[in-house]
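Feature request disguised as a bug report, sorry. It would help if multi-protein outputs had a clear separator. Right now it looks like this:
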Amino acid sequence: MSLKQLTSEWQQWLRENVARGCSRESLLPLLVQGGHTPVVAERALSEALGLAVPEIPPAPAPGPLRPEPLLDSNQCLMSDGQRVRIAAVLDSPQIVLYENLLSADECEAMIALAETRLTRSTVIDEQLGEARAHEHRSSAGAMFQRGEHALLSRIEARLAELLQWPLERGEGIQVLRYAVGGEYRAHFDYFDPVHPGSEPHLRGGGQRVGTCVMYLGEVEAGGATRFPSIGFEVRPKRGAALYFADIDAQGQPDVATLHAGVPVTAGVKYIATKWLRQRPYRV
């Protein structure tokens, strides 16, 4: 079916180049540059090559496909008393910047909690689905189970209320520390279903539908979160949080969410990341 999602001109172009013996590696980026999403491009290419077309897990039903953040006013008073301010909103991709999501004491406590278990950060291998160190990500991280600590439980409950997404549909919080030179090059948080390594992660909780990056401190220079495709950048501010939906309104991976952690050039950057899933998540 994905081949039929291309225009007749693109279908003809693809078939001609496959017949000429062009490789998958050479054709895929051209399809993406032509305006097709990576999912559609990969599935159409697989079909043209006569290979098995990767399955896309169905969206959960009933209910919304992705979180619906509270946006009725410029401030949101949480049930635990925290008054969160909305600093910026973008519709496509869906991005919300919050201030005062965390108190100064909560930021310091989370940093102290993480310092007891920081290890080298990893990325997910696209082919094997395993976590491994990679030169594109130079940070130290501490992973926590959901509800592992009273502090984390309070913050997770606040996020569930603010983003209107069930608590059980979230991964545990990950705290990251970036020293000078530390960065995370441009990447997506969603699991691309065309990669074999995504399958076990999609099976356990479904797609990542939202990301929340909480800034635990100021950074002297560098360390911003940058979305290169849309020319948008957020610089760390203690207690602030950046939320963005990893999928679009139709439930498909949103390529506009390509983002990067800009290298830290002075100071130390601490953030806490929370990923939200389609379905209840269990480790």
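(second protein starts here, but nothing in the output says so)
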Amino acid sequence: MTPMPRNSKYAIELRKLDVINGQRLKELRPNSAGFYKVPLFVMDAVSRNASWYYPESVIAAHNNPNMKFYKALTEGNLEGEWQHPFMDDSINRIVKIDRTKTSHVISAIATEQSPDGKATIIYGWIRPAGPYKQALVDSFADPHINTAFSIRSLVSIVKKVKDVDHKKMLAVITYDSCDGPGFEMASKRYAPDVSSNESMSVDFDIKDTASCDDLYSGLAVESIENGSIMDLFGTDEINIVSKVLGIYDPATRKVLDNAKPQSIFHNCFRHA
């Protein structure tokens, strides 16, 4: 295609920036064990989709030993996918990791203060693995690609403040590789350089595990989805304490909202 002349009324000229906020886009190298240290999530910051998460809920969702995320990570089988599931997929798809799409395992997470001191970054030790392993390795190695990760979680929106959704994180499923980070700092550009001999952090810096009793309040869960949610939260029962009005559809085995053909369960949970 012939470039548009610079004096054109509608000319556009853009280019990739190698340095943003003092952070240079670069090749990322693993340590001697094959792990990359990368930023995954940012607390006390507003995401690009205008979301702010209550830090105490983020802490609880990561560090509750009853939850599937904690067990999977500490037991050594927490995987992530190459790209998120579609956000309009079923809850069953959201809470389950598709092993035909995995690109990495996560073996440790730890929190550190952001370079500007205004936020807290959750870093993960990532090792490429699975069917999309090579795609992730190539992305890390390419100095022109800003490899990024994004959290897959269940959340509730508590309130909106000046167009920003204040969200409570209920459960974490995993961190997936994605096209672009929800938080600018959750990308390879902000990843620290690690020496080939640097050991992997194995300590959780997130403290004060909270009770997850409130996670079950007001849930309306169809029987077909009970197993996935109970497994995710690490509980054998879910207490429904709020009255739920809806129509049971025997064809889909779902309780539907009377106002629109959408599962009431999806109205109880949002995912991000």
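Even a blank line would do. Unrelated, but nice: The first strand starts at residue 19 and ends at 20.
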